[in-house]
Amino acid sequence: MAEAVAPQVFTRRASGLVRVMSPYSAFIYNVLTMGIIFPWTYVWAPTALEGSNLVLGILFAFLFELPIALAYVWLATSLPRSGGDYVFQSRVFGGGFGFTVVFAFFVVWILQWVALSGWLLATLGIAPTFIGLGVTTGVGAFTDIGTWAAGTTGIIVISISNALIALVLLVTGFRNYVRFQYVMWYAILISFGIVLLLFLMNDPASATGKLDAFAGEVDGVQGFFATARAAAADAGVNFDPPFWLIGTLLVAPIAWTSLQWATYSSEQGGEIKNAHVFRNQVFIMVGSLALTAGLLILLAVAMQNGIGNEGILVASSGYWLAVPEATIGGNIMFPNMMAMGLTGSWFIVLLIGIGFILNSFQIVCNCYIGTTRIMVAQGLDGLLPDWFARVSPRWKTPVNAHIAYFIAALPVIWAFNYVGDWATKWALGVTFANGAVMTLSALAAALLPYRAKQVYEASPGAKYRLGGVPAVTVIGALGFVFGAFMVGSFLFREELGLAYSVYGWFPYLIVLGTALFGLIVYFVMRQVRAGAGLKVEYAFREIPPE
Amino acid sequence: MPLFSKRPGTKATRIFYACDIHGSEPTYRKFLNAAKFYEVDALVFGGDLMGKLLIPLVRDGGGSWRASLQGQNHHLRGDEQLAEFKRTMQTLGFYWQEMDPEEYASYEGKQERIDELFDVLAKERLGEWIALAEDRLAGTHVNVYLCGGNDDTDEVLSALDEVAGERVVNAENRAVPIDDEHELLTIGYSTPTPWETPRERTDEEIAEVIEKLMPSVADPAKTVFNFHCPPLDSSLDTCLKLDGSVWPPTPLMERGQPVYYGAGSQAVADALASYQPTVGLHGHIHESRGATKYGRSPAFNPGSEYGEGVLRGLIVAIRGGEVVGHQFTSG
Predict the structure, then answer these.
(1) A457 to chain B, minimum CA–CA distance in Å?
(2) Could you tell me if A544 lies within 8 Å of chain B, comparing CB atoms?
(3) Is the pLDDT of residue A470 over 90?
């Protein structure tokens, strides 16, 4: 019923609401959160799922995430508030469920990402950059710094510094982060572009020679690639595996560990300009997903061109099978490490390194940004002590929540690097836990028209229907099914997530324990509020207008 | 005393507070229903009743109308489409007026006439809301305390002077009892804004109003401050700094980034600090939902999301001049 000409609206002098983060900034935030330069897929999938096709696997991940991202578009335009997943799930499923899932599986488990981002900064950022600089400049001190950064002490010092610097940047004003994000964005694009070009400008034969020379400089070995290939073959790598469709499908959950973060901007929906506008959220979430998936596919193609399938399998054996011969200076052959080996220029090494260092730093920033917004929302709802929700009058940021998160991260950083088998015994739940939150939010989207009718009907997405059913119900249900497949893979496939561990039920119990912890916090806070004659359920329950 | 048991003594008075609903019909209806839903003893409104937009529905002949809403042009055919369109406008808090093309043309570019029409429609809606409140709350012990904010005009607020029912209390610029031991002191002004809204006052003027009204309060410690404007630099008043030299005001940028600042009132902050009331209830800055404290006195801003049909609010339980519990709500 729309047409071209219509009378204008009448306005009067009245105040208005303005928000700080532009849709473009939110788009960048999501791309950076997905970590285009931390492609686990390339070192995990090739030997874990021999015969799988990386390009197709990433494409599957994109297709599986697409309905989830679209479901979030409906949620984010219906409820454009800070606290994202917590707000969505508490409104649709109820406070007990929403709080428990998001507190346990996001707030608690993302502590693991704080530790992991420090590890990434040290081992993918600082260590290879300085080792690369040492090789290209011949300055031994650079190599020493790189080697120190890859050691346990170096990783812990770097991880704590990483978390502390991010804390200072973020508590002194969110706009500091938004400003710095542009620096990170361009540096990372340059770094990624260079890595792509280096792979595209080489072929397997030339790349092998350059990697041999690079490894020779770092480790003093001769014939690095041939030795690494032989060691990988001894470890059981099949260098000519037949195509495996199921394996290719299972690449999707691995690639999803990156692509699932396409919707992370929803955690600060209250700070995004025109967050309630449908096309803005499509751009922010679906746009960032499409771009990142495209870049990941492009990198897979470039790597196949530059180092070939053999090179990819050798690199993967250093990670998945822990073949020591397939590492350089003790570092896994992530794409950036190999790209540094393909150039002889210290300047190019520096540009690649800066991109990786900044993306590692961005990861810890978004750990804080997302979780502190959730904690503030939960504090305001009475499900965490009021202290967490307090915003500093001076800095205008939730300083208490930031400090609490930093302190909580310290033992996790220590354990991540000192406790034996922490990653496989304690920490693998992160793949399941984070994915479960997003899968359940897709289900929340599917149920939104029925469980939060008023909110849904006032939203711009309410006009879209598919065969008489709200479009969000169909898309959300599809997203839930795809998400459940990937989360289920983390639970039950031994190449992925929890089932990978050799510790039997222990990792599952850890996940269950965090959920129980969330539930206990909920019931304690519920009782505390009840002591003052208040019900926390009031925070979420929609009042009927009639 | 057991860890989680209620304190002994008299029953606390439970207040539901909300503000800044800007003409939104479903949000106001939710506000009235909050009495029953949250089982509270009083409904306190913190100002900004009036809507911000008026949509002309221009008759197109043959039972159809043309209108513009949220940047989209609409051609409404038949009563059913018209009724659906009006429901959407009610949710969004907009007013509407059916008019012929000639009448529409007579308004174009004439802001004074448009403002007059706003006042007529807003006063009419406020009158309906008062009647609705009387109807909904009849037979209960719950009073609804209404007042204006900086966005409301005096002409529209004059509807409150005509209140003559049982349950609606005109709280504007006065102290009124809220239970047997507490009073409610209400001031709806705000400090100057870049939007140049109808009821803005300088900080000095707000301080004068507070000082003028305080003697009418029996015990400041047992008084609920219902001040539309939040205290300055309190975290309840954080918003973007805007350039008021252009219309509509746009964010001021500093080194490529928007600037945040506190847009509250120093006079309100001083009053909270010196009089130490039971609690400070504030609104005005929709995006600055939160809580803070001045000495023993907590202060709150529940924020507002009226445009989505969501009623943001706050339940405060008070007893003996103290807040014994609070809960933000989002209904």
Answers:
(1) 9
(2) yes
(3) yes
